[in-house]
Amino acid sequence: MRTKSGESAVVLVLCCLSLLLLSPIALSEKCNPQDKKVLLKFKKELNNPYFLASWDPHRDCCDWYCVECDIKSHRITALVMKSSFPDTNLSGHIPPSVGDLPYLENLEFHKLPGLTGPIQPTLTKLTKLKYLFIEYTNVSGPIPPFLAQLKNLQILSLSTNNLSGSIPSSLSQLPNLEYILLDRNKLTGPIPESFGSFKKPGPNIDLSHNQLSGSIPASLGQLDPESINLSRNKLEGDASVLFGSKKRTRVLDLSRNLLSFDFSKIDFPKQSLVSLDVNHNKIYGKIPTTLTKVENLQQFNVSYNRLCGEIPQGGTGRLQDRFDEYAYLHNKCLCGSPLPKCK
Ligand SMILES: *[C@@H]1O[C@H](CO)[C@@H](O)[C@H](O)[C@H]1NC(C)=O
Ligand SMILES: *[C@@H]1O[C@H](CO)[C@@H](O)[C@H](O)[C@H]1NC(C)=O
Ligand SMILES: *[C@@H]1O[C@H](CO)[C@@H](O)[C@H](O)[C@H]1NC(C)=O
Ligand SMILES: *[C@@H]1O[C@H](CO)[C@@H](O)[C@H](O)[C@H]1NC(C)=O
Ligand SMILES: *[C@@H]1O[C@H](CO)[C@@H](O)[C@H](O)[C@H]1NC(C)=O
């Protein structure tokens, strides 16, 4: 009896040893088999691009290009598809199977001109997602309201695609959002009123280079993000809610819109403001002396507006020395250094 069990133990050891020798990869593979299956489907849905040639079923998928696994669980946590050469020959839609990688925290598609079609509804299954980047692609259609279900999102960047339609108001329900970057698309309609109800201080916002219209909702005055870029749209009316001496805004770019409000009454974030660009609007009134108290202003442009009166001189901000005439040109009747003297 004893001998027999001893024998079978030896056989077992030999058996395992030969298995180890025969298929070292299979035994040392860390990658979760379910994740691997999904990735291979993903690759197939993208028509097996050369870009993903390293996705060899005989190799551990934690070692594949574009993929990252968690150190402990070995589940796929990041899928980052970034073309490193200009002619990455990848064409197709975002594969729906990406929704079946339930541990994904980071999903990125960058500089893939051949990536087309909609933002897939299966993305809603990625409830652990913190970072979603779809940038410099030809992904089109609307920004789907269902993205609001990704409650852990910290960065939503849909910059530079072919997206159209209006901005869904549901996005303000994302409680952890730090950046919302929807610039350089073909978005139309107004900035949603709901954006004022983002959890304070609110995410950094870039909606620039779209075709947004209407007025800036007054509710946005409740926010205090570090940076807001609404440049190159068709926004009209009052933008004064975005200013205030107690705000911590560093960068405010409202250039190239149809904004029209009295600049004389604006109070600026004195401590924080670094960059203010309002060029090409219909802003009227004077440049207020409060602007000379903004200490760290490095970029400033009020050109192509309807401002009038003397450029305030002196103050810690020293506007007249710090910025040349190009910051002030093409207004109604601005005068004083660096422009010609007032009459
Ligand atoms: C790019 O892909 C297309 C079709 O998918 C194919 O016809 C073409 O030969 C590919 N070009 C290169 C350089 O691989
Ligand atoms: C979208 O596709 C066109 C060609 O159809 C290409 O010229 C353009 O660069 C693409 N856009 C982006 C952002 O990749
Ligand atoms: C961009 O979107 C428009 C619809 O808004 C569509 O007609 C066009 O084919 C899209 N371009 C690409 C390259 O996908
Ligand atoms: C705001 O967006 C425009 C257009 O996308 C860009 O050219 C500009 O540099 C941005 N402004 C700042 C201050 O980053
Ligand atoms: C201000 O904007 C105008 C119009 O875009 C531009 O011509 C000028 O160079 C800018 N000036 C500065 C100082 O940035």
From TrEMBL:
<feature type="domain" description="Leucine-rich repeat-containing N-terminal plant-type">
    <location>
        <begin position="33"/>
        <end position="70"/>
    </location>
</feature>
<dbReference type="InterPro" id="IPR032675">
    <property type="entry name" value="LRR_dom_sf"/>
</dbReference>
<keyword id="KW-0433">Leucine-rich repeat</keyword>
<keyword id="KW-0677">Repeat</keyword>
<dbReference type="Pfam" id="PF13855">
    <property type="entry name" value="LRR_8"/>
</dbReference>
<dbReference type="InterPro" id="IPR013210">
    <property type="entry name" value="LRR_N_plant-typ"/>
</dbReference>
<dbReference type="Pfam" id="PF00560">
    <property type="entry name" value="LRR_1"/>
</dbReference>
<dbReference type="InterPro" id="IPR051848">
    <property type="entry name" value="PGIP"/>
</dbReference>
<dbReference type="InterPro" id="IPR001611">
    <property type="entry name" value="Leu-rich_rpt"/>
</dbReference>
<feature type="signal peptide">
    <location>
        <begin position="1"/>
        <end position="28"/>
    </location>
</feature>
<comment type="similarity">
    <text>Belongs to the polygalacturonase-inhibiting protein family.</text>
</comment>
<keyword id="KW-0732">Signal</keyword>
<protein>
    <recommendedName>
        <fullName>Leucine-rich repeat-containing N-terminal plant-type domain-containing protein</fullName>
    </recommendedName>
</protein>
<dbReference type="Pfam" id="PF08263">
    <property type="entry name" value="LRRNT_2"/>
</dbReference>
